[in-house]
């Protein structure tokens, strides 16, 4: 996405959903166990030559069926990445965005410049954590150079080998304001009084 001048390209009020719909192969009964179903490489990639204005956008990897009704249970779908932002000419704006339940990270700012990100929200995948498939699986054979490899974690450390909220590397003129990350579950179970994630 790149226009002739800054502000030419914009996305407003957009919802991207992967899984959780009747009639698909990524729903309850199809993606209920470990390892999770690999459904998509990523949600959004703003490349190094692109610039965009993005407002009120939600990228959601389904953690439950939408069409299955109440009590349909958790599903285990793996989208590799949330938003990969590499825009370097800029300006690029992300205003009121959310990325939820992606396996490696929710937001990754890699070599980006002239970027403003305001009011981010995210959640880790509910299926990650001790007792289930540990990141970077099931994407370990398809990592790119900007992906976290989780080498900072022990091999079996389920509280560390979980999706990152945000990775920032090699960026200039990046403004971030008002971001939050929610970690509610480990292996689809409430964490109780213990921390759900260590990194």
Q: How is this structure best summarized?
A:
The chain is an all-beta fold. It is built from no helices and eleven strands.
Gyration radius, in Å: 17 Å
Quickly count the helices. 0
Mean pLDDT: 89
Oligomer description: single chain
Order of helices and strands: EEEEEEEEEEE
End-to-end distance: 33 Å
Low-confidence stretches at least 5 residues in length (pLDDT < 50)? none
Note the overall shape.
Answer: globular
Strand order of the largest sheet: 1-3-5-7-9
The major sheet is characterized as: 5 strands, parallel
The portion of residues forming beta strands comes to 35-45%
| Strand count | 11
Structural class: mainly beta
Task: Classify the helix fraction into a percent range.
Answer: under 10%
List keywords for this structure.
42% strand; mainly beta; 199 residues; four-stranded parallel beta sheet
Explain this structure to me?
- The chain has 199 residues and is mostly beta strands.
- It is built from no helices and eleven strands.
- It has strands at 10-18, 37-46, 53-61, 77-85, 92-100, 105-110, 113-123, 164-169, 172-182, 185-186, 189-190.
- The strands form three sheets. Strands 1-3-5-7-9 form a five-stranded parallel β-sheet, with no helix packed on it.
- The mean pLDDT is 89.
């Amino acid at each position: 996405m790149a226009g002739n001048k800054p502000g030419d390209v914009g996305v407003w009020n957009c919802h991207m959903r992967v899984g959780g719909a009747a009639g698909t192969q990524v729903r309850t009964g199809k993606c209920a166990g470990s390892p999770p179903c690999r459904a998509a490489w990523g949600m959004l990639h703003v490349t190094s030559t692109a610039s965009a204005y993005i407002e009120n956008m939600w990228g959601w990897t389904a953690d439950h069926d939408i069409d299955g009704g109440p009590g349909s249970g958790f599903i285990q779908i793996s989208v590799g990445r949330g938003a990969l932002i590499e825009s370097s000419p800029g300006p690029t704006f992300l205003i009121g965005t959310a990325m939820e339940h992606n396996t490696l990270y929710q937001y990754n700012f890699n070599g980006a410049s002239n970027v403003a990100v305001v009011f981010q929200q995210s959640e880790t995948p509910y299926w990650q954590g001790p007792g289930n498939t540990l990141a970077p699986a099931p994407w370990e054979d398809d990592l790119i150079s900007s992906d976290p490899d989780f080498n900072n974690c022990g091999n079996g450390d389920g509280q560390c080998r979980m999706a990152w909220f945000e990775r920032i590397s090699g960026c200039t003129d990046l403004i971030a304001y008002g971001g939050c990350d929610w970690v509610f579950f480990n292996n689809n179970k409430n964490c109780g009084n213990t921390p759900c994630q260590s990194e």
